[in-house]
Design a protein that fits this description.
Layout (H helix, E strand, L loop, with lengths): L1 H15 L11 E9 L3 E4 L2 E3 L12 E3 L2 E5 H8 L2 E5 L4 E5 L20 E9 L3 E4 L2 E3 L12 E3 L2 E5 H8 L2 E5 L4 E5 L27 H16 L4 H10 L4 H10 L4 H15 L4 H10 L4 H10 L4 H15 L4 H10 L4 H10 L4 H15 L4 H10 L4 H10 L3
Parallel strand pairs: 2-14, 7-9
Antiparallel strand pairs: 1-8, 2-3, 4-5, 5-12, 6-7, 9-10, 11-12, 13-14
Helix pairs in contact: 1-2, 1-3, 4-6, 5-6, 7-9, 8-9, 10-12, 11-12, 13-15, 14-15
Length: about 400
């Protein structure tokens, strides 16, 4: 048990990089999308519930296919002591030598619907030591991994922690579980191993054929169209992949969902005219989060006055409007009063002719006297002169 705890101490050390609260400093920053997908973690088959400094369960998240946890959360789960040296910007992890009672298991984090969150990652040259020894976590390829801070909490990939401690890490896509294990606590095998080769650490679980195929299909789909995270899963399920395979592909395809939203916005604006809020609405309908849709609307380069003008042109192609009526319909579509007024002022409409068309349409379905027809046209926003013109153009 001591050996297991020592190993866990190591993992905590690295993991602590994943979530220790530290003061904010000026740091290099970058934006990232955090994918919360009810990820679970086990150690040698036993569920592990990382907690924060207050004992509350902490939910892992994924960035570009990599699972992250707060340093302190991992430390708490493994019984390590963690402290912060502000002078050297170092997270200090210590494995106590005296026997202590195991920490009281925390209630598992309540399952939440899978969702995405935007966050700012702060890099500030954070260092980590375990029992006074400097520790350099690495990823699966042996590259050094730098901790980052979100809202004062330090994070590091779970795999980096496992690698630093010599743990085996694998992924169960069906149950969305990160599986950690160490060989030091394994019991004697019931039957002699057939191979005489020395036992090696178990390699990370390979994705299934279905997951591989789904990932390829996702790459192909993203090459020709823009999809949201949920939209990509939907299209892959439509193509016959299971939800687990489609989710694996969406989690590991490396897509930047903000950029996907921007591409979807560009495509939408190519074929239709949208207001700022209307564009956000259509992108949310396609499965993008409000943050992603807003990013796209903010960065698509659209001229909303010109979009209003295009929308006005389309509206006038199929219906007759007065000046004020056109402004009203554009505001209904989400354009501001200023944008709608710009469109009405610059659409080139002949309002007398619009009144004549409106009168013609009204007479198709009902009978009117001259006075009633003029009254109806004025109700639709035409001036008295335009309404008279419209009535006379139709024989009144």
């Amino acid at each position: 048990m001591k050996q297991w705890k020592a190993l866990l101490s190591g993992i905590i050390a690295t993991a602590l990089m994943l979530g220790f609260c530290i003061p904010a400093y000026a740091a290099q920053q970058e934006q990232a999308t955090l994918n919360y997908n009810n990820i679970k973690i086990t150690m040698n088959g036993d569920p592990m519930t990382p907690t924060d400094a207050n004992g509350a369960a902490v939910e892992p998240f994924i960035i570009d296919g990599t699972t992250y946890l707060p340093v302190r959360a991992v430390a708490n789960a493994l019984g390590l002591t963690v402290s912060w040296d502000g002078e050297t910007k170092t997270v200090l992890l210590t494995d106590g030598t005296e026997e202590t009672e195991a920490p009281t298991p925390a209630e598992p984090a309540k399952a939440t619907e899978a969702h995405l969150e935007e966050a700012t990652l702060n890099y500030n040259d954070i260092k980590i030591t375990l029992n006074g020894e400097a520790m350099t976590p690495t990823d699966a390829n042996g590259a050094a991994v730098e901790p980052f801070i979100i809202d004062g909490t330090t994070y590091l990939p779970v795999r980096a922690v496992a690698n630093a401690l010599g743990l085996t890490v694998s992924w169960d896509g069906e149950t969305k579980t990160v599986l950690l294990s160490n060989t030091s606590e394994t019991t004697e095998p019931e039957a002699p191993a057939e191979s005489t080769e020395p036992a090696e650490l178990e390699a990370p679980a390979e994705p299934t054929e279905g997951e591989k195929n789904a990932l390829e299909a996702a790459a192909t789909s993203l090459k020709y169209s823009a999809y949201s995270y949920t939209g990509l899963i939907d299209i892959l399920e439509y193509k016959g992949y299971t939800t687990a395979e489609a989710t694996y592909a969406a989690d590991n395809c490396g897509a930047n969902w903000n950029e996907q939203a921007a591409k979807a916005a560009e495509s939408s604006l190519k074929y239709s005219a949208y207001s700022y809020t209307g564009l956000i609405d259509i992108l949310e309908f396609k499965g993008f989060t409000t943050a992603e849709a807003t990013y796209a609307a903010d960065n698509c380069g659209a001229n909303w006055n010109e979009q209003a003008s295009k929308a006005a042109e389309t509206s006038l192609k199929y219906s007759a409007y007065s000046y004020t009526g056109l402004i009203d319909i554009l505001e209904f579509k989400g354009f501001t009063t200023a944008e709608a007024t710009y469109a009405a002022d610059n659409c080139g409409a002949d309002w007398n002719e619009q009144a004549a068309k409106a009168a013609e349409t009204s007479l198709k379905y009902n009978e009117y006297s001259r006075e009633k027809l003029i009254e109806l046209l004025e109700f639709k926003g035409f001036t008295h002169e335009q309404a008279v013109y419209g009535a006379e153009a139709n024989g009144f």
